[in-house]
């Protein structure tokens, strides 16, 4: 499948509105803010319809090529990024007396997080630009994801991450064979170094919040949700927010579909942040610009001092008529345990934050009985076992005979 014509007309700055030609590729606006890809929807509609999409046997997110900022799909797509299930939980919907409750389970991506969507499209973009080495600053998942997909596609990945990143994520990065540079400092320090490295060495940057390709990759989660619901979009989508790239992408996906006329509206997009890492939600609540915070939360993936895609995040919430919610670490960890034991889906803290945020919104009367709700589960609980162990206790071993078993089972129940 090759594109007939490039459907992208230009880039536009999310802040000052300046437009740029699509070639040559550029990361950001001259004003320092981030760019959007502007598609020529009329051109896309000429050769792509819901029906041609339905006939496409590719189950990965590459089925949405006409809405992606690259020319071609990779030859080998067998690792399968995207195409994750949207799972309905009627029991949870009944319990909370709402119309429908769905989990979009993006733990099923190859490296266990939604970030694979951005890495996959980013690597193809790098390939089309002739780049072989890709560098990323990351709290962990983007790096694990870049490392995994670079291994699959035969690229060189250089990862810059805070030394505090969970061991499981660092292990993934090294297992996949990427070069890992740990910094003494926060994710924000890693990000600043990655920017300097890209300037110095000219490598391709897969750092969230400067490369506009990445939110285009993340938007495929929204395209899938809409297609899985047969183009009837849900009422509210809960999204965990760190830099704001995922939520910006979710909005862009629903926006693109509305422009194509395939859907009739954009769902309300709810930004969920940890209480002590809530630069975006605080800005939303006080209707002011984003100010940096000193982030501190167990949910490492959303622990961000200064969000790098904050404007797209604010736009997603405001334009969709959504709102922001903050959750405490304790609420995140309780939600992780409740979600796993009621749904079978084991989410990392950043991801279970959406379930915690949903419960708070419900309690605050911000969820209606008629609502169809989707929560995004963006990363697997296996990525941070020490965090998950805070709400469980592993039982002491017993002598393996029935008497001890009876004693133990009596004690447990
Ligand atoms: C599992 C998970 N959830 C949510 C996020 C937050 O995404 P963003 O930084 O784009 O807001 C991340 C980012 O690392 C993540 O890994
Ligand atoms: Zn600008």
Morphology call = globular
Largest sheet: 6 strands, mixed
- Put simply, the count of helices is 16
Question: What distance lies between the first and last C-alpha atoms, to the nearest angstrom?
Answer: 57 Å
Query: What top-tier CATH class of the domain at 86-111 and 214-391 fits best?
Result: Alpha Beta
Unique bound compounds: pyridoxal-5'-phosphate, zinc ion
Assign the CATH architecture of the domain at 86-111 and 214-391: 3-Layer(aba) Sandwich
The helix/strand series, from N terminus to C terminus, equals EEEHHEHEHEHEHEHEHHEHEHHEHHEHH
Helix content range: 25-40%
Descriptive terms for the model:
binds zinc ion, 413 residues, binds pyridoxal-5'-phosphate, Rossmann fold, globular, 16 helices, six-stranded mixed sheet
Short description:
The chain is of the alpha/beta class. 40% of the residues lie in helices and 15% in strands. The chain has a domain at 86-111 and 214-391: Rossmann fold.
What does this structure look like?
With 413 residues, this protein is of the alpha/beta class. It has a domain at 86-111 and 214-391: Rossmann fold, CATH 3.40.50.1100. The chain has 16 helices and 13 strands. It has helices at 41-47, 50-54, 90-95, 115-128, 141-153, 167-175, 187-201, 212-218, 220-228, 245-260, 279-286, 310-320, 329-343, 349-363, 385-388, 402-412, and strands at residues 8-13, 19-20, 35-39, 86-88, 100-105, 133-137, 156-162, 179-183, 204-205, 236-240, 268-274, 324-327, 372-377. α5 links the parallel β6 (133-137) and β7 (156-162). α5 runs parallel beside α6, α9 (220-228) packs across α10 (245-260) and α10 packs across α12 (310-320). Zinc ion (ZN) binds next to loops.
């Amino acid at each position: 499948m090759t594109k007939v014509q490039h459907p992208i007309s230009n880039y536009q700055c999310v802040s000052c509105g300046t437009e740029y030609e699509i070639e040559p590729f550029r990361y950001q606006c001259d004003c320092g803010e981030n760019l959007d890809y502007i598609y020529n929807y009329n051109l896309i509609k000429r050769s792509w319809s819901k029906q041609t999409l339905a006939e496409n046997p590719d189950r990965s997110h590459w089925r949405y090529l006409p809405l992606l900022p690259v020319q071609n799909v990779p030859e080998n797509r067998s690792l399968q990024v995207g195409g994750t299930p949207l799972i309905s939980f009627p029991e949870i919907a009944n319990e909370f007396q709402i119309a429908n409750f769905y989990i979009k389970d993006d733990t099923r991506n190859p490296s266990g997080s939604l970030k694979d969507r951005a890495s996959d499209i980013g690597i193809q973009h790098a390939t089309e630009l002739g780049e072989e080495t890709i560098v990323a600053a990351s709290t962990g998942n983007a790096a694990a994801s870049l490392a995994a997909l670079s291994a699959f596609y035969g690229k060189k990945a250089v990862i810059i991450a805070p030394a505090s990143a969970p061991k499981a994520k660092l292990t993934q990065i090294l297992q996949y064979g990427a070069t890992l540079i740990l910094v003494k400092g926060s994710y924000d320090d890693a990000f600043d170094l990655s920017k300097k490295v890209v300037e110095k060495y000219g490598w391709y940057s897969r750092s969230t919040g400067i490369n506009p390709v990445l939110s285009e990759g993340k938007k495929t989660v929204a395209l899938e949700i809409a297609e899985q619901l047969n183009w009837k979009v849900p009422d509210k989508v809960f999204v965990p927010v760190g830099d704001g790239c995922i939520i910006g992408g979710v909005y862009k996906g629903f926006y693109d579909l509305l422009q194509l006329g395939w859907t009739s509206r954009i769902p309300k997009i709810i930004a969920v942040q940890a209480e002590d890492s809530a630069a975006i939600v605080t800005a939303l609540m006080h209707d002011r610009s984003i100010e940096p915070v000193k982030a501190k939360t167990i949910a490492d993936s959303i622990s961000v001092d200064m969000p790098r895609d904050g404007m797209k995040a604010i736009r997603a919430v405001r334009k969709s008529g959504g709102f922001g919610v903050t959750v405490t670490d304790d609420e995140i960890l309780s939600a992780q345990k409740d979600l796993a034991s009621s749904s079978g889906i084991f989410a990392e803290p950043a991801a279970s934050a959406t379930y915690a945020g949903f419960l708070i919104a419900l309690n605050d009367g911000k969820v209606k009985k008629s609502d169809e709700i989707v929560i995004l589960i963006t990363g697997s609980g296996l990525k941070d076992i020490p965090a998950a162990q805070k709400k469980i206790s592993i039982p002491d071993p017993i002598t393996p005979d029935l008497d001890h078993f009876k004693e133990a089972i009596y004690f447990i129940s």
